[in-house]
UniProtKB/TrEMBL annotation:
It holds the Pfam family HATPase_c. The chain crosses the membrane at residues 167-189. Coiled coil: none annotated. This is histidine kinase. SMART domains: HATPase_c, HisKA. It comes from Flagellimonas oceani. Its EC number is 2.7.13.3. Residues 261-469 form the Histidine kinase domain. The keyword Ubl conjugation does not apply. It catalyses: ATP + protein L-histidine = ADP + protein N-phospho-L-histidine. InterPro entries: HATPase_C_sf, HATPase_dom, His_kinase_dom, HisK_dim/P_dom, HisK_dim/P_sf, Sig_transdc_His_kin-like_C. It is an enzyme of class 2 (transferase). The keyword tRNA processing does not apply.
Length: 471
């Protein structure tokens, strides 16, 4: 509505200005033609009544006094030229005659001579106003041209311009009033129309999959609003059905993920357990004087792995996090060394500058983190000529840092942002839950895990978690 009023006011103002301009042009043209016709009649009458021969040479005698009388009667000033364009007589007083051209332009003479027309109209701008001048032949009694009459005319638009300004002012006041009314009408009508839409908007903003949503009920809504409300209510019904299906699907997916993770977690201790048994079987010597010590260490390792699987089974059966966290104060250096003992690869090296780094962690979960990272490093260097895996433990301020570095294949850039996603793996076998599980364990203890990798150069995983403060 506001735009319509503004556009209408601009268009009407433009049409009004154009109309006034056209009316002014028509008025001046008609007035000039009337003046010209009356002037020609007066000149012809003078030529009929004169006692001088009607020739070009006698024009200055014929109109010596009559030109002033004609100008006074017709209330115009005009000039008379001979056929060569030379000024013969003008109706202005002598002190104003200096501004009158004594010779006509060649353009005027050529037009009258060659075009076959008996009348030439010249249009110019002078002193800010439009200026017109008519040049027409003066004929003798036998219709033979004997001179040229020039009638200058200055268009005075002062009155028209004043009328136009007054009209535009009145029109502007009317349209300002209409604009104010349109603004108020537009505001109240839009509020009335959008009242129902605001209710629908509020309901849509409160729509949530996690709880039951309310339907919309409006009293006497319009046809369009009623269709919108019906569509929203149908959407709510479909949303409720979809939420039930989604919840069922999520439960089933959670069970599948739980089963996969349990299987993955059980496989982790089985692999080092098998390697430990094979190593003991290969190195077993009944005559070794330290056989009792080795058997004890072997049994200790087996018991740790069995305890790990027992914890997994217990956690799964009780629907708790897998496995349950047991905060205990332990020596990180010692636990990491213990986790590395199950690996027989001679290219695995452990470095630390400290004999004891104390932190509150779960021994089983820390071992699981180290074994997962080392196993990933081993799998990343199958074709490297001189494989090397370096595990380090260090203290930085009040934080403990554990890093596992290898010179393997590295991780491609397109895979880096997904490396900790569950079920994501670049290997041909495996469930892809290992690094996701490691990340969860580390973050549960207030730590972080990061990595840097370069294809063809290797990868470094760094674990950072709080150190236990001494009293």
């Amino acid at each position: 509505m506001i735009t319509l009023v503004v556009v209408a006011s601009v268009l009407i103002a433009g049409v009004t200005v154009y109309q006034y301009k056209e009316q002014g042009n028509d008025y001046h043209n008609e007035r000039l033609e009337r003046k010209e016709e009356q002037l020609i009649k007066s000149i012809n009458y003078t030529l009929k009544e004169t006692t001088y021969p009607v020739t070009t040479e006698n024009l200055h005698l014929i109109f010596s006094e009559e030109i002033y009388e004609i100008a006074n009667i017709q209330n115009v000033n005009f000039n008379i030229y001979d056929l060569e364009g030379n000024l013969i007589k003008n109706s202005r007083p002598s002190f104003e005659s200096n501004s009158i051209a004594t010779c006509l332009d060649a353009e005027v003479l050529n037009f009258l001579r060659e075009s076959g027309e008996t009348r030439f109209v010249e249009e110019k701008r002078a002193a800010g106003d439009n200026y017109q001048a008519i040049y027409t032949y003066i004929y003798d009694l036998k219709f033979k041209p004997i001179g040229i009459m020039n009638l200058p005319y200055f268009e005075d638009n002062t009155f028209n311009n004043m009328e136009l300004r007054e009209f535009l002012f009145r029109l502007g006041m009317v349209y300002v009033l209409m604009l104010v009314v349109a603004i108020f009408l537009a505001y109240f009508i839009s509020k009335y129309i959008t009242r129902s839409l605001q209710t629908i908007s509020d309901k849509i903003n409160r729509t949530n999959l996690t709880h039951q949503n309310e339907k919309i009920y409006l009293e006497s809504p319009g046809e369009e609003i009623a269709k919108l409300v019906d569509s929203y209510n149908r959407m709510i019904d479909e949303l409720e059905e979809s939420a039930v299906k989604l919840a069922r699907s999520e439960r089933e997916q959670a069970w599948r993920e739980m089963a996969k993770q349990v299987a993955h977690e059980i496989k982790n201790p089985l692999t080092p357990l098998r390697l430990t048994v094979q190593s003991f079987e290969r190195k077993f010597d009944p005559g070794d004087p330290e056989i009792q010590k080795k058997v004890k260490e072997f049994s200790k390792t087996l018991i740790q792995q069995i305890d790990t699987m027992s914890n997994i089974a217990t956690a799964f059966s009780s629907f708790a996090d897998m496995p349950a966290q047991q905060n205990e104060t332990l020596n990180v250096v010692k636990v990491v060394k213990l986790a590395l003992e199950i690996f027989n690869e001679d290219y695995i090296h452990f470095i630390t500058d400290e004999d004891e780094v104390v932190a509150k962690l779960d021994r089983t979960q820390l071992i699981r983190v180290i074994t997962n990272l080392v196993k990933n490093a081993i799998q990343a260097i199958p074709e490297v000529e001189s494989p090397r895996i370096l595990v380090t433990v260090a203290t930085v301020g009040d934080r403990v840092k554990i890093s596992v570095a290898d010179n393997g294949l590295g991780i491609a850039d397109e895979h880096k942002h997904r490396i900790f996603e569950p079920k994501f793996t670049t290997k041909s076998s495996g469930t892809g839950l290992g690094l996701g599980m490691v990340k969860n364990i580390v973050e549960n203890y207030g730590g972080t895990i990061t990595f840097t990798s370069k294809v063809g150069k290797g990868t470094v995983f760094t674990i950072d978690f709080p150190k236990e403060q001494k009293n």
